[in-house]
Amino acid sequence: MTNVVAQVDLTGGYYDAGDNVKFGFPMAFTATLMSWGLIDFGRSFGPHREEARKAVRWATDYLMKATAKPNTVYVQVGDAFRDHACWERPEDMDTPRTVYKVDPSHPGSDVAAETAAALAAGSIVFRDADPAYSKRLLDRAVAVRERQCPLASLAELLSLADDNSAVLP
Predict the structure, then answer these.
(1) How far apart are CA 36 and CA 117, in angstroms?
(2) What global pTM score does this model have?
(3) Nearest to 145 by CA among 115, 103, 106
(4) CATH number for the domain including 48?
(5) What is the extent of the structural domain holding 153?
(6) Of 25, 57, 125, 145, which is least packed with CB atoms within 10 Å of its CB?
């Protein structure tokens, strides 16, 4: 992960733990779980299903912005140490909005994979409600996974696991 001075739109998304930092990993994880909640239990949301979709979209819109630059995932906005030293409303914050990213020179396949998972799960949430948005989410999930997580596919890993003489890279 590297600190960058970026002119990138990273508005939206969720702050973490009541402060003014946006951490990509917990946000992507949360979006993934919210999506699976809707996928598995959406009918029980009753009249609040659309509100839940809006909450997922708020996160996935942000994750789309964070992955808009090829081979890059913006994974943090704000300096945790500075932000944790002061408590204020986001509208009043005056701390630097330091941006951190992962890319081929600064890998972070864990956060990139969770981001891809959040986008893929979000695509299922919007499959019927907004097919065009669903396709954009899925296309981006695939792109992030292919570019940022150049690991063997699951099938390749399983075949290696079946071969006792194989050594994982």
Answers:
(1) 11
(2) 0.84
(3) 115
(4) 1.50.10.10
(5) 2-162
(6) 25
